[in-house]
Amino acid sequence: MTRRFNFCAGPAALPESVLQQAQQELVDWQGAGLSIMEMSHRSSELVGIANKAEQDFRDLLNISDDYAVLFLQGGASTQFSAVPLNLLGDKKSADYVNTGQWSKKAIKEAQRFCDVNVVASSEDTNFTTIPAFDSWQLNKDAAYLHYTPNETIGGVEFFDVPDVDVPLVADMSSTILSRPIDVSKFGVIYAGAQKNIGPAGLTMTIVRKDLMGNASAHCPTMLDYKTAADNDSMYNTPPTYSLYLAGLVFAWLKEQGGLAAMEQLNRRKAEKLYSYIDNSGFYANPVELSSRSLMNVPFTLASADFDKAFLAEADEAGLLNLKGHRSVGGMRASIYNAVPEEAVDTLINFMKDFAQRNG
Ligand SMILES: *Cc1c(COP(=O)(O)O)cnc(C)c1O
């Protein structure tokens, strides 16, 4: 068996030890005589797995009892509508920051439910910057402010949490668990699992409890946070196997030393890669220095004519899924928690070699 280095933006790399444990437990989970996939979600085994996953997730992010942790489905994209449906209350508008493709999708969906006030946009820099906070046109009657702390496609990340008077909502799909955050500053945090948590099919949502219970009369039962919270995320059948794997990843993260340790490692990985790109004379990253993502590193080659050869040769060298998003072009290396430092070193060596041969 040869595992190759996977730089996919999502579904993304998983820790090898987690996959091995899952393989070992696949057919007969810990002597239960059946696999997780075949277990009732009401069984004591599965409830135990869910409870432990929730506790480990709470420990990792230091989440207080003021917050509910929900295991949902539908991906982050479903949260684009769940957020306004749950949080608007009797308000008619919400504030959104537009920093890239995912912000835009969130905005478009919210426009189905309310007046969206775009407080700031970095579209004029082709989404390579974060608009300065003091320029934001906040609406004091907004039900909440939504932003995307890490734009997975553009590779732009916020390193400061916006300070606003309304509940703060964050789409953390591609940054959650990459470094410590102060959850108490947020009203709602959501993330599709398939970037930095586990396999697709699971969506983690953290909701401040006082924000639940005011869902719009039109809110589908399945999108109402209170339904999920009141039923321990088991109003209907949850994605049990994804939940189990996410639980293994949470336990793995604790073994690695938690999020402070992950941040150190992630900074080291990202700094190496950006520093090589900047000094290469062959590759370039367009994002302003202070907003460069620790998780998603887009880069272009000296000429787009090299792209095809780069991708083919990278693939041959065991470096997978480096093609950039079609809206940005070039390459993108997603270097989530489960992408080891060795993968980044190998990528940099490959890039050096390619540049030498083609530069
Ligand atoms: C991937 C991604 C999404 C979409 O997630 P789905 O789970 O596929 O709906 C939304 N926002 C961000 C920031 C993402 O990276």
From TrEMBL:
Cofactor(s) needed: pyridoxal 5'-phosphate
EC primary class: transferase
Catalytic reaction annotation: 4-(phosphooxy)-L-threonine + 2-oxoglutarate = (R)-3-hydroxy-2-oxo-4-phosphooxybutanoate + L-glutamate; O-phospho-L-serine + 2-oxoglutarate = 3-phosphooxypyruvate + L-glutamate
Annotated metabolic or biological route of this protein: Amino-acid biosynthesis; L-serine biosynthesis; L-serine from 3-phospho-D-glycerate: step 2/3; Cofactor biosynthesis; pyridoxine 5'-phosphate biosynthesis; pyridoxine 5'-phosphate from D-erythrose 4-phosphate: step 3/5
Keywords noted in UniProt: Amino-acid biosynthesis, Aminotransferase, Cytoplasm, Pyridoxal phosphate, Pyridoxine biosynthesis, Serine biosynthesis, Transferase
Gene3D superfamilies: Aspartate Aminotransferase, domain 1, Type I PLP-dependent aspartate aminotransferase-like (Major domain)
One GO MF term: O-phospho-L-serine:2-oxoglutarate aminotransferase activity
Enzyme Commission number(s) of this protein: 2.6.1.52
Localization: Cytoplasm
Binding site for L-glutamate: R42
N6-(pyridoxal phosphate)lysine modification, residue list: K195
Free-text remark on how the cofactor is bound: Binds 1 pyridoxal phosphate per subunit.
Transmembrane intervals: none
Summary of the function given for this chain in its UniProt record: Catalyzes the reversible conversion of 3-phosphohydroxypyruvate to phosphoserine and of 3-hydroxy-2-oxo-4-phosphonooxybutanoate to phosphohydroxythreonine.
Name recorded for this polypeptide: Phosphoserine aminotransferase
